[in-house]
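Record 1 of the preview.
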Amino acid sequence: MKKSLLFILLLGMLSVCAQSYPTARTLVLRPGEQRVSHPRKVALSGKDDRQDITGKAVGIERAAVILEVETAEGTMLCSGAMVDVDIVLTAAHCLSKDGKYHEKVTVFAVGGPSKTSQKATPNSSKAAKLLSTLPSNKGIESIELWVPDKYLELSVTDPDKADNYDYGLVILSKSLGEQTGYFKLYPKSNEELANIQEIIILGRDIKQGRYSLWKGKGRIKSISSFHFHHNVDSRVGNSGGPVLDADDPFGIIAIHTLSYGEDEQEEGSFPNAALRIRPEIVNVVNTFRR
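->
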């Protein structure tokens, strides 16, 4: 009996190791027991000068979304972006921990106006603060989650290299992107990135209301094969947010994922980093498209 049970367990482990990119519309993938690295802090470069665009985002900015993630320890929130009618692109560390996918993700589009925001007229700062803690639109639940196998594997053997694969997808039960629109994906060469004058990052802020959407601007500094450093102000909760070229904001050039600095940095520093959109990310998204 014990030998049979051991054999079944070994088969299960081998099937996990053999995973590759899924075919479109698969069931939720649940890898083995590998440890997934935790998100790092994000940082401010000097004074926080971001803009609150909750309920007043313009055009494609409404395709930036907030992720409410149910975990074994409770609820956490991240940022993401619609990249098709029912596909959200975000950071891998927002979807998994300790080798297991989180229980469920609910996605909220809070950039555009809603019935809640139109009817609510709080007459005190306390009421306004309470309103910001509530989602202004009914969320759409996930039916599938996906994170690269390399992210899971390298988080055990080499966590720093795991950061190179810190991206994931949420497949939704309804076509939220038909209401918000959705971003294209723009893989950029080193030269193209170096020529970008200004970037934009969209996402939430842990200190500014659970369901709020913020817009920050800044510049790219150093560029590597997988990441580039930038000085756009951001905090915890902005992980997974889309990074855009301000001159062509219809396509995502990177995903905001991590920081190499402290909570606050001096003016002119470049404490944050973003994972570049690469052809393999485009291919994965295409695999999940209907």
